[in-house]
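User: Fold this; tokens only.

Assistant: Input:
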Amino acid sequence: MQPLFLRGPSITLRAIILIALSIGIMIADHRWHHLEKVRGVIESYVIYPLRYTVNLPVSFFDWMDKSLSSHQALLEENQQYQKAQLRYRVQLQKLSVLEKENERLRYMLSASPKVGEPVLVAELLSVDQDPYRQQVVLNKGRKDKVYIGQPIIDAWGVMGQIIYLADSSSTAMLISDPSHAIPVQVNRSGLRSTAFGTGNASELELRYIPHNADIQIGDLIVASGLGQRFPPNYPVARIVKIERPVGEAFATVLAEPLAHLDKSREVLLVWHNPPVDDAGSKKNAKQPEQGASK
């Protein structure tokens, strides 16, 4: 049996009627706005949720892409900051080393007025590795008017003397070398003696001291100036041990050098009684200015 709504006019006629009715409703809505509230409700509760649901995967992937991009950018920026921090730390360490070196040089040059002679700053190039020799190589040589036997000092005391020359370098023997000896005297009593190296950078031996000699632990030992090689009255060592063995003719006296023999990186070359040539003029007449630097 045919449904009731299919009876009557044909399908074409019904379609025309529905179109005309729709157009009429649209004209009426356009003129009197009767369907705005209905359209707003439909858009709010039906269309917007559908649009949001459809756009949700796109929005999610867009958010993920931005998040990953931001995370990668933060990682790269963090790596750049870490590299920059490492460079700054290296520069800071270099500045700290330069600051310490500057302090040492200022302190060392403050010793030159005590010497009263022209001086030149030199740097250590190498240290002799032979345990039986206490020698160092300096970066000043014949072209700098350095001479054999020239004394070297630091800000604390006498260090040694030049024993070999090259054009741009020289070798110095430290006062702790077993082959080295320096005339000294006790600053308090004026007692004269000779300080011999022992091969130990922290120990000198004063030989031939009688048992009844006026010498005490803690006495300051200075260069006597005898021999005209080392500047007189410049500190050499301090007495740390005195023994008077029974049956021995002389006391055993040990002193600790005041110069930083195993620590100093810079030394002062002192122009004290340089040698003379055959004409009687000093070979190194052109001496550096007082306190001249490298």
